[in-house]
Request: fold
Amino acid sequence: MRSNSKTNSWEASRPVKLVDIAKLANVSIATVSRSLAGSDRVSNDTRDRVIFAAEKLGYRANRHAVSLRKQRSRVILVMIPDFANHNFAQLLIHMDRAAHRAGYEVMIAHTGDDTLQADSLADELFAGGIAGIILTSSYCPPRVRSLLLSGKQLPVVRTLSPTGRDERITSVQIDEIAAADEIVTHLVEQGHRRIAHLAGEKTQLVAMQREEGWRRSIDRAGLKDAGVIYRGFRVEDGRAAARELVEGEDLPDAVFIASDSAAFGFVSELRLLGVSVPDQIAVAGFDDVSFSELFTPPLTTVHLPRQAMAERAVDTLVAIIEGGEPEGYSFIPHRLVVRESSFRHG
Amino acid sequence: MRSNSKTNSWEASRPVKLVDIAKLANVSIATVSRSLAGSDRVSNDTRDRVIFAAEKLGYRANRHAVSLRKQRSRVILVMIPDFANHNFAQLLIHMDRAAHRAGYEVMIAHTGDDTLQADSLADELFAGGIAGIILTSSYCPPRVRSLLLSGKQLPVVRTLSPTGRDERITSVQIDEIAAADEIVTHLVEQGHRRIAHLAGEKTQLVAMQREEGWRRSIDRAGLKDAGVIYRGFRVEDGRAAARELVEGEDLPDAVFIASDSAAFGFVSELRLLGVSVPDQIAVAGFDDVSFSELFTPPLTTVHLPRQAMAERAVDTLVAIIEGGEPEGYSFIPHRLVVRESSFRHG
DNA sequence: TTGTAAGCGTTATCAT
DNA sequence: ATGATAACGCTTACAA
Reply:
């Protein structure tokens, strides 16, 4: 048990409660509550007096009392695998804003290494502690997953990361396959012929979809499979892939890399190995994080519409929470960003 | 008012409550509560039966009921000016972890453009909604500030950003002046003579302290003031400064830039203008965000010990919340990171 | 060792 | 239009 001394060093002045306002305004607490809630069953005069008193005392409702009584929380849990990744950080800004607009607060659960804490937070969905959950990776807390699979509708929405049809999670995403297809087609149009792919891990749906897009594009162009390296989305994965590629027979003309972070590592390691981008190998990434345009060379990539996804995800979730019908899937348009890293060499 | 239909599309199965466990285990609610709390005033047999029942039903305590009854929340509010900035994103990861370790949850308030929402959240400190506040910028919510200034002790800690002595906020920070001094001294030792400074805004304490460090270093070395440009900490500020500098008389040997982000913009814009770093101008930044080493050229900078600061800030706050004595200031050691951007040209 | 009951601050139902 | 009062789910004296 945690120490629970009664002598807090910060003398906690007693919070202002309804009863304090009631006394000051000379009405009952019921009337105070109604006035503050903007009910029309109060005389204008009384309401004004109450509101004045409330402001004078600096009243702030106790969220726990309200949530307990109303049996409904105004907290949305956002499950994030990695804060440090720009994708998630930016998503968070926009979710926070959208949530506030709708009258909700955002709480974060980090699903990084250890999901226990996060799962426990998510379970509060069933205890009324939180109103809904936004998933941003392929991860889904076990209890939520099993209920979802049993056909139950829950206030749970996934965004950023794609959702398999059989997962039954309301989803806000881009068309990953089409996006990958488009950017690889851009490489083809630049004149590149041997286009390899640095993919994510084979177990990840998002990686599989981006690979599928790459494959469709080279098939359509009648190009030969120049090889796939399965690694991951992090900087280090890109570095490792670069070393592997340089050790191999002959270099491809271009590489489509499934994430910008990996692309940074890839290009950076190639430079160390004396291979220059795009002169010797052209590169295209995926995500368009803020550093992509500052990178040398500036990275050609797919821009993830993070703001639109975040807002749509929140709005969808709020709609479900407040009794609407979940829509299943909704797709957000993506955008190609062509920069120097993909330019034809020579 | 928000629509509040009673027919939620997700049939909310009634949450499991203590009374459900009580029935299943054939004991009173009080005994259930005691068992789950690990009280020693319960027989082992009963406790086991209760815990078994609780797990079987998938019980999760209602946080609002607990907080209301215990008159103490387990939520820490972290006020962040900008999620997208790596500094804050990383800080958040570590705070989240440290908070969970101590049994708290983290809630985020974005103090970006509009502080109203954030202030309102912060005010919950006085209504019992949150247990304490961590500030990460110079911003401090008005009500908190005025109470602090009146000499009151509050569970409020600032980190990352320095605190003025007169602010009376418990603070976890690095020695900004010393750090700036050291990195400028490194530039001096590289042989640079005309060392300019790209500072933040004049109104910001952190900018003033870094400028002070720069000034001390060049004074000690007996160098002339090669000029200060006051802009800001963002990429765009760095770009603008680069243009201003190139338009001026003659270029300095080196520039100490008060933030890595601004340094990215500065170097990037210089490249566009045909000035190369570090060949024509050496550059040193401040922060050591994750891109700093991927940047071209890799950036010499001061590493902010984000993890240590985050953990110390949380621990300090928790100590105050739980009745300890606030320590005032505590300093975390920083570290110089020397990379190519500061190398002597020629 | 266990049960009974009061109460945390708020909202909502029922009177008046 | 307003006031009394019963919940909301939980913890914790106090009783047994």
